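Researcher: Next sequence.
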Amino acid sequence: MTLAGLEEYLFTAGLTLAFVATIASVAIGRKHFAAALRDSGLNARKLAIAIGILAIFVFAEAVFVVPTQQLFFDDAIYQAGALGLLHMGQAWMCNYGSPTMCYSGQIYHEPIGTAFNIAIAFAIGGVNSGAAYNAEFFLGGVAVFMTFLVALLMTGDFTASAFAELLMALSPALLTWARPTTSDMPMLAYSLIALFCMLVFMKRKKMITLAAAAFSLAMLTYMKVDALAYLVVIPAIFLVLDRSSIGQSLRLNFKMLKDHLMDTNFLIVLLLLVLAVSPEAIYTVHELVSGSYGYQGAFMQNSCISPGSANSTILANGKIGIREFDANICSNLEFWVGAFDKEYIVQPLAFTALGILGTALMAVYDRRLLLAVGGWFLVFFLLYTSFYAGSVTYGVDWRFMLSLIAQASILGGYGASKVIETVRIGNHGQ
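Model: Next structure:
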């Protein structure tokens, strides 16, 4: 058996541990999760409205969007990896084997998270592309609903949260990519789950909510190599939102850590977390350092220069860099104003306008929230714009924008809520 094969068993074990531990932690701590949501204003009527908005997404996706393979090769690799997981416990790219056994394979340049989700769908619905597409569809629905919950815990404003969910549900990027097999949809859904668990821990600082936050974050790292950034982003959001200042948050949370450092339950959670995340963390760091992602010999469009002009295409000289950022920045900004509607690469201008309005109003009313949501958006915008293949006009890589849609929706929901609030105050003043 090759070292790669052994590594894949470790990946499977790590993700399975994180997956089971997350579900168990949420189940055990369900009263704390419910209390955090109640404290943020959630009740039965508001929950029904949120479910109704989710139904809008489900209806629009099921009726108007045809499941289509858009990411060639990768789509098949993820589904084949799911078969390997079911039959052998390894989600690797098989080079030689039979339908039920792989004799020679290799690790693909993405983690096993997508294949893991598809394997669950195959186990439930049988081995077919429809089951794979429906697994992604389900995760799209999870992303829509979790956007509502995350926004509610962040803002405490139901109107802002409901509009954030609605903008998410109607996002063309989400509707387009909710059925093909990609790693971007699982990363989106699991990032929102991890952020939600962290926000619950922020409001209900119990060992079981800490466990849910930690294991959901470990689970997220297996969805995509890029998800490693969340190991910094989610703790940073916690520090920004937890207390009246980042300095106070650091002091009080460091003291809490010292007080519980030798607590048996804390040590058990820490040990399980290390066991769960170590295989993927080591692999991801190695992949980021040594993986080429095919940049050698790849030509990329300089999106700030008219096509056909001199220097309108350049040769990539690395995976990530300033030169790549300069070439991608114009297209990745134009995406947000519907510039590519003829290619079906669209973010409606009205959605972006609400997001810009929400950003401006957050700067006035809640700068810490703007730092959290805006920083979350900026990290992934800079990451993908600096990636040689991160332009929205580079093949079908506009799927990367899925990592920015939730933040834009939350900003837009906040803007919509403030507009409605202003109108109501004006009407009451008449």
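Model: The longest strand covers residues 93-98. The chain has two domains: 1-291, 295-430.
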